[in-house]
């Protein structure tokens, strides 16, 4: 019984392990499916309406007209029975399609398919040679053929391949020719009229089949080959590029054609996975304009992520960049009004401010507007006589930018709200400190350089020796200043003012 009970326990443990593995596998498959579903959301959408197609279709019709003019028509020969006389042998050769005109055309939308090209009242001209044999009568010459009232209808199915490039194929094609007029040159007019009807019907059948054959071959060959050469990425500058590949087949309705693009920026130096998925992007059902563009927060946030990864979100400010005539100068004497120790440690030295983003900016788009909370680190340096830099302080700012955008009378209007706040470690106030006069959070703060610790009291500018201990008598020529200050609630954002 004990042995039997042990085997049962092992079997139960094995069954439990198998169930756990099955559950894990199911979870992995579900996660992959969810990831693939999320990956289909576009970052950028282009909507083309019927008005936009009407404006742009002329270029496509010009290309089609040139392709149809290149049609190669085969020679025609046969026997035509003449009542009481026997058979007339005829040959039509050296056919030359001199022109193919498409005076009336239209490109329309076909729901769930793509586009339809409809052509009416088209006409063409064909030249060639003829030869007939009827008993002992032989004759030859040339002829001119006019094809009138040609109607062509072509359905184009739009899609995309695995690489995100567009695809196109002919899903339907039909051609109808109303009339064909043939004008022969020669002596025996009565003889030509005997086989005229036979030649006319043969010409109509051949041209109707050749037009669709040419369209299918041109779409599946030349046009599709051209689409495969189109790039789906582009270089923006030396740091970043953009991926605008198709994430889904173009979706056609009765009024619009929506093209979903990836809309993802990436770093040229090292392209990696974006750490956030694209949200759902749906355009409103408007179709009055020719073209609409839609961009989600993914489009803008991948731009910030790419440039941050490339190290581009860094900006340095020096005194030489301040316009002449401005009384403010970027030096220790100016900042000594806020931090008196600077003038003692680094008297009348130029400064450099290095602005950087510790993280990529993240934009939020909601029905109420857009909002952005950028975080900026401002590192201040003193430029020493030997051009080396002495780190003075680090100021960390968190901005809060929100905007509402609307369109009125064809103009884009909006309202922009800007605010900021800083971060500083909490500490009790002390004499001479920058005090907060209200219950609101501080409008700005500055924190000490990493590795030097926080000052003893918030709001007091203290000098730290190179060893990191306070003491006025230990100030060295390159000792950093650790600053932690709070502004009153009446301070102007991005200003440091003590009371």
Walkthrough of the structure:
Residues 285-498 form the Lipid-binding serum glycoprotein C-terminal domain. Residues 419-479 are annotated as: Disordered. Belongs to the BPI/LBP/Plunc superfamily. BPI/LBP family. This is Bactericidal permeability-increasing protein. It is a single chain. The protein is α+β, with helices and mostly antiparallel strands. It has two domains: 49-228, Bactericidal permeability-increasing protein, domain 1, CATH 3.15.10; 313-499, no CATH class. It contains seven helices and 22 strands. It has helices at 2-39, 50-68, 189-194, 196-228, 297-309, 332-335, 340-345; strands at 44-49, 76-82, 86-101, 104-110, 114-134, 137-160, 166-184, 233-235, 240-243, 251-252, 256-261, 264-267, 291-295, 314-318, 351-356, 363-366, 369-372, 375-383, 389-408, 411-422, 462-463, 481-482. The strands form five sheets. Strands 14, 15, 16, 17, 18, 19 and 20 form a seven-stranded antiparallel beta sheet that branches. A hairpin with a 4-residue loop joins strand 8 (233-235) and strand 9 (240-243). It is elongated. The termini are far apart.
Helix/strand/pairing category: alpha+beta
Number of domains: 2
How much β-strand is present in the residues?
A: 35-45%
H/E element string? Answer: HEHEEEEEEHHEEEEEEHEHHEEEEEEEE
Mean pLDDT: 75
Number of strands: 22
**Which outline best applies?**
elongated
Mind telling me the C-alpha Rg?
Answer: 39 Å
Note the gap between the termini.
86 Å
The low-confidence runs, each spanning 5 or more residues with pLDDT under 50, are: 1-7, 15-39, 423-499
How many helical stretches?
7
Largest sheet: 7 strands, antiparallel
Helix content: 10-25%
């Amino acid at each position: 019984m004990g042995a039997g009970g042990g085997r049962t326990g092992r079997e139960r443990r094995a069954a439990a392990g198998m169930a756990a593995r099955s559950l894990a596998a199911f979870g992995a498959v579900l996660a992959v499916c969810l990831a693939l579903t999320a990956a289909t959301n576009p970052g950028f959408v282009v909507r083309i309406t019927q008005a936009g197609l009407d404006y742009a279709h002329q270029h496509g019709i010009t290309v089609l007209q040139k392709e149809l003019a290149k049609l190669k028509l085969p020679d025609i020969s046969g026997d035509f029975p003449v009542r009481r006389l026997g058979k007339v042998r005829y040959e039509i050769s050296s056919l030359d399609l001199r022109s193919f005109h498409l005076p009336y055309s239209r490109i329309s939308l076909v729901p769930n398919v793509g586009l339809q090209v409809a052509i009416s009242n088209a006409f063409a001209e064909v030249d060639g040679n003829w030869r007939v044999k009827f008993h002992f009568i032989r004759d030859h010459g040339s002829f001119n053929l006019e094809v009138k009232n040609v109607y062509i209808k072509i359905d184009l199915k739009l899609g995309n391949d695995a690489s995100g490039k567009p695809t196109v194929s002919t899903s339907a094609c039909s051609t109808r020719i109303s009339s064909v007029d043939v004008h022969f040159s020669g002596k025996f007019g009565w003889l030509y009229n005997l086989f005229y009807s036979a030649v006319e019907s043969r010409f109509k059948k051949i041209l109707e089949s050749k037009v669709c054959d040419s369209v299918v071959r041109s779409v599946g060959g030349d046009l599709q080959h051209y689409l495969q050469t189109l790039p789906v990425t582009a270089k923006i500058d030396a740091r970043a590029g953009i991926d605008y590949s198709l994430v889904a087949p173009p979706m056609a309705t009765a009024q619009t054609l929506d093209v979903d693009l990836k809309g993802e920026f990436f770093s040229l130096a090292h392209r990696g996975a974006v750490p956030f998925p694209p949200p759902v992007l749906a355009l409103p059902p408007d179709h009055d304009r020719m073209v609409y563009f839609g961009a989600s927060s993914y489009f803008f946030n991948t731009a910030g992520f790419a440039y941050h990864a490339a190290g581009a979100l860094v900006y340095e400010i020096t005194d030489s960049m301040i316009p002449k005539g401005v009384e403010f100068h970027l030096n220790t004497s100016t900042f000594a009004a806020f931090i008196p120790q600077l003038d003692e440690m680094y008297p009348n030295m130029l400064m450099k401010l290095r602005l950087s983003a510790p993280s990529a900016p993240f934009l939020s788009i909601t029905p109420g507007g857009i909002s952005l909370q950028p975080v900026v680190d401002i590192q201040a340096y003193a430029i020493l006589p030997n051009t080396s830099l002495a780190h003075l302080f680090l100021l960390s700012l968190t901005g809060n930018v929100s905007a509402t955008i609307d369109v009125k009378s064809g103009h884009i209007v909006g309202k922009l709200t800007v605010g900021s706040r800083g971060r500083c470690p909490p500490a009790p106030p002390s004499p001479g400190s920058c005090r907060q006069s209200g219950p609101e959070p501080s409008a700005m703060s500055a924190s000490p350089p990493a590795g030097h610790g926080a000052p003893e009291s918030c709001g007091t500018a203290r000098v730290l020796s190179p060893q990191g201990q306070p003491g006025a008598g230990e100030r060295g020529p390159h000792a950093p200043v650790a600053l932690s200050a709070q502004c009153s609630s009446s301070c102007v954002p991005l200003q440091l003012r003590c009371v």
